[in-house]
Design brief:
The protein is α+β, with helices and mostly antiparallel strands. The protein is built from 10 helices and 9 strands.
Length: about 270
Amino acid sequence: MAHPDTTPVYRQIMDDAPRPVAAKAISEADGHVIPLHVHKRGQLLHAISGVMRVETPSAAWILPPARALWMPPEHAHQVTMRGRVEMRTLYIDPAFCGPLPTQPVLVEISGLLRELILAALDEPADYRDDERGGIVARLILTELERLDRRSLDIPMPHDERALRVARALLEHAHIDLDLDGWAERAGASRRTLARLFRAQTGLSFAEWRARLRAVDGLARLGSGASVADAAAAVGYASPSAFTAMMRREFGETPRSLHARRRTVSGTP
């Protein structure tokens, strides 16, 4: 990743917001990349439509509309859009981030928090603490402490050869090269590439790719894809093989995972 870029005006404005909680609505086109950057504030990255891929130097997450990523203050990250993305993002003053995670974490978005974010967007940046804006902000901070956290990160290697492979699969999880094929593309031996994935991600290459495909497939289901379409998009020849992989990774079938998430988020 490149060095963090902190120049865009909207980032400066949100970091310098006059109240503890600030909300921002952003629309981005398919394929748009917000380059590596940092915020002084904590950030809840959330979209009401479209899928976001968020990367830090050590991990990646794929976010459908029912999920969000809590990004603590001063954590460098990059965001890539899949489809047109309508972001609805919160920025939290560092002084109010004490009860919140100190590392990035994927969270479920409750129906209440989703509505509170929309309500915050209707308030001025300098809302009064004793009026509607202040009440909404306090409720947001309370809900953030109660978020349902999920361990759905994709650990990223840092060696350039392994990272080249990881990023290619992040873009196109369906590519079905074996380890020999990826080693040739990466300019490393099979043994070296296998060692790098194990040492730097804690997973074998096969385990890492299965984790990526499971997380990517779950995000596709969350954005409306059928089980068959999600399976094909991440490289499985049949829905049954995809379902078996998801059961191994998450202990549940794609349909039960999707149904439970809809119940949690309140989506139809």
